[in-house]
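Researcher: We plan to redesign the surface later, but first we want a full-length starting point. Tokens attached.
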């Protein structure tokens, strides 16, 4: 059965319904919506704060992970490098090196140790399967005794060991511009993190008491006398590692700059007719430790022919 509504009261009902609707809308807007908006803002702030905390936590976690990785990697490289040096030392113990204070050798001295030392260098090359091993450096005063390598660039051995494996400690290496076959160059440069003990040469007493450096090459032993030492910024405009000079005058100018830079130096007289050895190592703070030495003696391989 349907509900009958008198048409006379319909307009009244319409106005009543409209009024109720407006009342509900106004009431809902003022009493319900606005409180909900005010309650929502703290929630949004909490979400944003939570997201910010997460981002900061992720950044800190990544940094901590990288730091832990770097420390572990350093000690891993250090352990591997120590193992490589121990292997090299076992072979290098066979090298025969006359002390510097016994020089010069007499003209009839037995120098059969020279080719033997070349054989020892070949043993080092075989041990590490690396034909880049070309020399052995000994600085008795600084407790430096390491094989030295040389390749076509000055970057590879900054972070590779004697066996050519990647290692942040790198290796001792000669500048790629050096001519070691005939020893015909003017400046022989050796780089390496292992040369950090050179810092002792910045002490006058130590400098005066430890001037001998020995560099063993295939077919010869070379003796050098330290005459200058200093530390310099890595980006310093004086290129102490320069190996090529167009003339004697250019090399003389280079030697003058060394004298100017030297924090500690001797009275050794070095001219354009001399050859120098430059040892360089970087240290914390972006500075380079540099030691220069003058060639004072070369013992070459001598082959005596016996005629019956």
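Model: Full-length starting sequence:
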């Amino acid at each position: 059965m349907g509900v009958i509504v008198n048409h006379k009261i319909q307009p009244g009902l319409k106005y009543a319904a409209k009024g109720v609707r407006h009342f509900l809308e106004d009431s809902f807007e003022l009493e319900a919506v606005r409180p909900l908006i005010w309650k929502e803002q703290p929630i949004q702030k909490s979400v944003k704060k939570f997201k910010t905390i997460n981002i900061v936590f992720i950044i800190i976690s990544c940094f901590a992970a990288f730091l832990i990785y770097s420390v572990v990697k350093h000690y891993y490289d250090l352990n591997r490098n120590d193992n490589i040096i121990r292997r090299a030392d076992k072979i290098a113990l066979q090298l025969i090196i006359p002390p510097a204070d016994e020089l010069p050798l007499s003209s009839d001295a037995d120098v059969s140790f020279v080719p033997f030392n070349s054989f020892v260098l070949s043993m080092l090359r075989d041990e590490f399967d690396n034909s880049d091993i070309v020399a052995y450096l000994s600085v008795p005063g600084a407790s430096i005794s390491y094989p030295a390598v040389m390749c076509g660039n000055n970057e590879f051995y900054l972070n590779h060991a004697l066996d050519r494996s990647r290692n942040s400690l790198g290796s001792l290496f000669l500048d790629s511009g050096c001519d070691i076959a005939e020893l015909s160059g003017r400046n022989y440069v050796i780089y390496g993190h292992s040369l950090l003990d050179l810092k002792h040469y910045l002490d006058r007493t130590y400098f005066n008491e430890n001037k001998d450096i020995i560099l063993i090459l295939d077919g010869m032993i070379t003796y050098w006398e330290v005459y200058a030492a200093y530390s310099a910024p890595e980006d310093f405009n004086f290129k102490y590692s320069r190996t090529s000079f167009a003339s004697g005058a250019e090399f003389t100018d280079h030697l003058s700059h060394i004298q100017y830079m030297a924090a500690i130096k001797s009275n050794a007289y070095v001219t354009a007719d001399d050859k120098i050895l430059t040892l360089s190592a970087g240290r914390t703070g972006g500075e380079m430790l540099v030691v220069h030495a003058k060639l004072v003696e070369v013992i070459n391989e001598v082959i005596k022919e016996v005629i019956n």
